[in-house]
Specification:
The protein contains 18 helices and two strands. By secondary structure, it is mainly alpha-helical. Strands 1-2 form a two-stranded antiparallel sheet. A hairpin with a 2-residue loop joins β1 and β2 (64-69). The protein is globular. It starts with 7 loop residues before the first helix and ends in a 14-residue tail after the last helix. 39% of the residues are buried.
Length: 448
């Protein structure tokens, strides 16, 4: 096929485009943002770091203003978009992915539940009777971006089935995190606003049932839903997941109908092209191209379209921004003493011990008893390595820590422990899997 004409700007931007389309790029940016936050927060300009995120920001019209510090706009606002994308992934997995059938879903669901309960229990043992006992939700989370980033470094030592298993575990883990946030880290409920939010959610579900495919309708209703949940006392990020459940997952055009329509339009375009006129002088060609574009949109589900458009923004902008705003903890004290506090020990035990035990042991019991099939090409060591990598809590654990602790000192302790445990879990998982033999090369899809 004749290559497309390349403009000079295409040649300039292509290395950057290749970087941003690699699976490791989001993890690298997340690491860079975390390091930048730690360096900034422990530099002579630490005051500027904290002042920036405490800066008030108001949005509204006339007298109707919503005023919050910049940090809360990130954690309550932008993170709702992240949870919306998480919700899209959850819905897709339950429709056509690893969670689509009971037999497929049993292993990752049970492993994820084990990977949530054991860390929570270990944290509670370390902190029972203390004012920090409510932080049991912090070590329950898994940061899938970092976990998959470590797996990508191991190449053919890790079969694709293990990556799929770990992704499914993390998605179930995300469901658990959302439930924990909604049920246990929600303040006083304002029932009027909650009722309004549920009414808006019903409107979004009704639009789906009626066949509405315009993303703008869901955007307007989704923003109103977020605001209602924000005012209701239920954490606003929950609105993101609920809104995602209403996004249509059915295309307007079936595959056969789409092929027939495109074939007819291409034939029309070929006929119109015989005039020899350029695009500007041939409006018929332009109308055909618009019809082709509409046919493509009608053959694509809104869920797929939104997930594809939003995922790069979440991975390459929202998550690094969240890390920059939240990972800046003060490391000037005695680190050994900091990590020896019961709060820190609970998080370290939960992520470094509870996650591998909960995930790997549950998976091994189910596969050895024949209740579930092990991922193809994996051994007990593969499952143990995946369990260790599930201990990379990072983003979600830091997010829950911000909800669990009102005391800034406790929040700093928790974040420090999360960073230390996540680093250690990633290294431990890499060491467990590093010694495995390389498998056969996996087939790759050609890209043009």
């Amino acid at each position: 096929m004749r290559p497309l004409f390349r403009e000079p700007i295409d040649t300039i931007l292509s290395p950057f485009q290749r970087f941003f389309h690699t699976s490791a790029s989001s993890g690298l940016l997340l690491v860079a943002a975390t390091i930048a936050a730690l360096v900034w927060a422990n530099s002579p300009w630490a005051g500027d770091y904290h002042a920036l995120w405490a800066m008030p920001l108001s949005v509204g019209l006339g007298g109707a203003l919503l005023a919050k510090p910049l940090l809360l706009w990130i954690n309550d606002g932008i993170m709702a978009m992240f949870f919306f994308v998480v919700g899209l992934e959850i819905k897709r997995e339950f429709l056509v992915g690893e969670l689509a059938s009971p037999r497929q879903a049993l292993l990752p669901i049970a492993s994820a539940v084990g990977g949530m309960l054991v860390p929570a229990a270990l944290f509670w043992v370390c902190n029972q009777g203390s004012p920090h006992a409510d932080g049991w939700g912090v070590p329950m989370a898994t940061d899938i971006a970092f976990a998959l980033g470590v797996l990508s470094l191991l190449g053919r030592r890790v079969p694709a089935t293990l990556k799929i298993f770990l992704t499914a575990v993390a998605i179930v883990d995300d469901i658990g995190a959302v439930l924990v946030i909604a049920l246990f880290y929600t303040g006083t409920i304002h029932w009027t606003f909650l009722g309004l939010g549920l009414l808006l959610l019903g409107c979004m579900a009704g639009a789906n049932a009626l066949g509405v495919r315009a993303s703008g309708i869901y955007l307007v209703l989704g923003c109103a839903l977020w605001l209602a949940f924000l005012k209701s006392g239920v954490h606003a990020t929950v609105a993101g997941v609920l809104a995602a459940m209403t996004i249509p997952a059915r295309p307007r055009l079936g595959g056969g109908t789409y092929v027939g329509r495109v074939r007819d339009l291409i034939e029309d375009f070929r006929q119109a092209n015989r005039s020899g006129q350029g695009m500007l002088a041939n409006p018929r060609r332009h109308r055909i191209l618009l019809a082709l574009r509409r046919a493509g949109r009608d053959a694509e589900t809104p869920l797929q379209r939104l997930e594809a458009r939003l995922h790069p923004w979440m991975a390459l902008a929202v998550m690094p921004l969240f890390a920059l705003a939240n990972a800046g903890v003060d490391l000037s004290g005695d680190m050994g003493r900091t990590l020896a506090q019961p709060l820190s020990l609970g998080i370290l035990a939960g992520l470094l011990l509870g996650k591998p035990v909960g995930v790997a042991l549950t998976a091994l019991v189910l596969t050895r008893t024949g209740l579930a099939a092990a991922p193809a090409g994996t051994t007990a060591r593969h499952l143990l390595g995946a369990g260790c990598l599930a201990g990379i809590g990072f983003t979600m654990s830091i997010f829950i820590a911000g909800l669990a602790f009102d005391d800034p000192g406790a929040e700093t302790l928790a974040k420090t422990a999360v960073l230390a445990a996540s680093l250690a879990a990633g290294l431990l998982g890499w060491l467990v899997l590093r010694g495995l033999p390389e498998g056969p090369a996996e087939p790759t899809e050609s890209t043009h």
